[in-house]
Each structure stands twice: as structure tokens, then as C-alpha cells.
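Thread: quick sanity check before group meeting

JM: Hey all, I'm pulling together slides for Thursday and realized we never actually wrote out the predicted structure for the chain we discussed last week. Dropping the sequence here so it's in one place. If anyone has concerns about the input, flag it before I start.
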Amino acid sequence: MSSLSQIARPYAKAVFQLAREQSTLPAWSDGLGQLAEVVADDSVAALLGHPRVEPATLVDALVPALGDGLGEQGRNFLAVLAEQGRLSALPDIKLQFDALRAEAERTVSVSITTAESVDAQRQGSFAEVIAKRLGREVKIDWATDVSLIGGAVIRAEDLVIDGSIRGELQRLQKQIGQ
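JM (edit): ok, ran it. Output follows.
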């Protein structure tokens, strides 16, 4: 586990607890997402550790990325991160916050890549089967990749199901090569 990930954990837990108590999980998720994108930008990242840039100046510059829903609490959160020199941990805070949120809401993000586009009826069938298998509500991102030849690749957290023809051909190739 990276050091930023370890640093991010207590901040993510604290913000998650606050957001859950105040029923502002979506607002915090959006705000953290915007902040994570902003601080990942090279020009902004260069300012985060710069000794001539005051923490309050960084906070003032980043507050607009929070959006309107977080108000003073969002600003205070940014101020704490800035004072502690932890603004660069925002992408990890966002990831951990989203993981805590998904666990609490019993949801999982699933990525399904198919060789060709899938109609709405089949998408619904896929969603039902995956939700039943995982025992959670699923949020599916659909993509197409013609290099799969046929079938699909499904990713949900650590689970990867490669039901593509390309994947099968690669498995056969490994067997033959051994």
C-alpha cells in the first residue's frame, strides 16, 4: 500500500462519516472528484508543495472545485489538508471515500466491455445476473472493443471474468506453448 493511500485513509473515513451523518454522500463524492482532478493536474501539483505558496492561498484557489453543496465544511476540510501538506492525497481520499460509500450503499461499479454494442434489453439481463452473483446493486459502465472478437470482459473490484473470444484464444495459446 502506498504512503499516500495510508495518509488518505483517516481523512476519507472522517469525511465519509460526516457525509453519511448529514446525508451528503453524493455532494462529497462529486466535490472530492473535482478536487482530485484539479490536484492531479501538473501545474497545480507543482504548487502543492511549493514553499512560497501559503496554505490559505491554495484553499482559496481550490474551493470553487468543491461545488456549492459543501459550504464551510468543505472549505474547512481543504484547510486542514492544506495546513498538513496533504492536498496531494486528494485522489486517494476520493478513491477510499468512494469505496466506503459503495460498501455502505451495497453497490459496486462494474465495467463491461463487449465486442459489439449491446441493446438495452440485454444490458438489463447482464445487470440482473451480475447483481445476483455479487449480491449488490450494480452500476455498469459499458464499452465496446472490437479486438475482443466476441463475448465480453467483466470487471467488478478484484473480480475479472474474461468471456471474450480473444481471451479464450490467449488461454489456448498458453496451453499449446507449454
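AS: nice. The longest strand covers residues 107-114. The longest helix spans residues 3-21.
JM: adding both to the slides.
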